[in-house]
Amino acid sequence: MVQLCCVKFFSFPTWKQRQGPWICDNNGHLCFSGRPAYEMNETHPDWAPSLHLGHTEVKATDNDRFQWRKRRRESVTAVSATATTAPHTPDVDEDAATAVLPQGSEQHGATHEATSPEEATQVPDVDQAPQQKYIVENEQCVSCKCMDGEMKSMRAEMNHLHEENMTLKKELSAARMDEGLFNENDKKARDEKVKYYTGLPYWTLLQPLHTVIIPCLTKASRKLSPFQMLLLALIRLRLHLPKQHLACLLQISHTTSKMFRETMGVLHFHLAPLVHWPARHCLQHTMPHQFVEPFGSHVAVILDCFEIGTEKPSNLKAQAQTYSHYKQKHTVKYLIGITPQGSITFISKGWGGHVSDKYLTEQCGILNKLLPGDLVLADCGFNIGDEVGLMCAEVKTPGFTRGCAQMDPKSVKDTRQIAHLRVHVERVTGLVHNKYNILQRTIPVSQLVPLEGEEFSFIDKIVTVCCALTNMSPSVVMKQVLAKPDSNGQSE
């Protein structure tokens, strides 16, 4: 019997992972680590060659990303092992406890022991996803709590720095004499500070004045803001502080006179209209009863003169013109007119102190403002009856004896009434002098003459601005009239 001898042929087993290991003699030029990675570690950057492949479309694998994934999976494995060895508690479910380990860990224990930690983490189990999600959420909660604490501390620090910044800004504004100087929560304290530095009674009067003059003072080359220039001028008028002291306060050079002159020119332009002659019906409608009883509603103005001391001029003629026999020194004289209500309605230009009251009244132009039927109250030195009569008006002056032994009873009564009412103009004049100390100082001769191309001298601008600022304040005459009790003992 013939026996057939058959040889069976079997093919080599196929390796599904790319036909087995890839062998290359020049691994250093194709791999990051210089040698190929383990075949089962697919996430390793050297699992497949990626360097010097002759093209640039495929980017090289990021080695840092691989290291990060590796560390994260190792941490997840460590946490899972810790959760497995922890004692069982009633609060923990059996499903949650078994979800920590893969289901096939008992059957394939030997296989897992033989492989490296990288291999053990290559095949994640489906049941491991909830545990990983819980761990990630737990880590996120911890990080959120840390961020919340950091945000609270940063917010507290920010509030502290904001308060400190506001405090330092106030101190800096006060030191630089800026608007922050008057940032007071108490309105009364703020108004008192405004009154001390500027002479104005309220902060609400200083703000509109600042708004009006801003267009005329805004210049990029100035070191001072428009408000600082305004405050510089008002402080100079009100307190007459030395120039060097103001320069130190405002941190500028000692040549503050140029800024002062410029600001005074702007103030004179804007405030001069406040010294105006009112209409007759306005005067009669608000005439105080102290004037109505003896003179009716015909009193138009109360006249008086005041003088400001000046330096002695070098010119002999100027010395004679400015010397005042009444003051016994060189002065400049002004004619001032106020209404019965106490507001300043007229201020003349400066004249030499030697000029008489009558001549000054005739030449200053106030007679042209009188209307027929007006009554003018004046002092004895105003012998202007004829000049006022030419305007169909009347002047009342206190009587004097004129060589007689005594006055008749009617003249005494009229003189007492006129003298009592003329006190108001002296009160207003004294208020202007006392409020603005610059009028109490000796004026340099250089300020008595107008500059070329200007109509008013610098001292005329100063006096006009002081009178206008006085008109912006409440009237001292009306204040006294309203405070005076009537015949029934009640104040009006």
Verbal overview:
The protein is 47% helix and 7% strand. It is of the alpha/beta class. It has three domains: 27-84 and 93-106 and 113-120, no CATH class; 179-271, no CATH class; 279-458. Strands 1, 2, 3, 4, 5, 6 and 7 form a seven-stranded mixed β-sheet that branches. Helix 7 (203-217) packs across helix 8 (226-239) and helix 7 (203-217) crosses helix 10 (257-271). The longest helix has 48 residues, at 128-175. Residues 88-124 and 485-492 have low confidence and may be disordered.
N- to C-terminal distance: 158 Å
Helical residue percent band:
40-55%
Counting DSSP H or I runs of 4 or more residues, the number of helices is 18
Range of strand content: 5-15%
Radius of gyration: 50 Å
SSE arrangement, N to C: HHHHHHHHHHHHEHEEEEHEHEHHH
Tally of separate domains: 3
Q: Report the mean per-residue pLDDT as an integer.
A: 78
The class by helix and strand makeup works out as alpha/beta
Protein name: Zgc:113019
GO molecular function: metal ion binding
Cofactor: a divalent metal cation
Organism: Amphiprion percula (Orange clownfish)
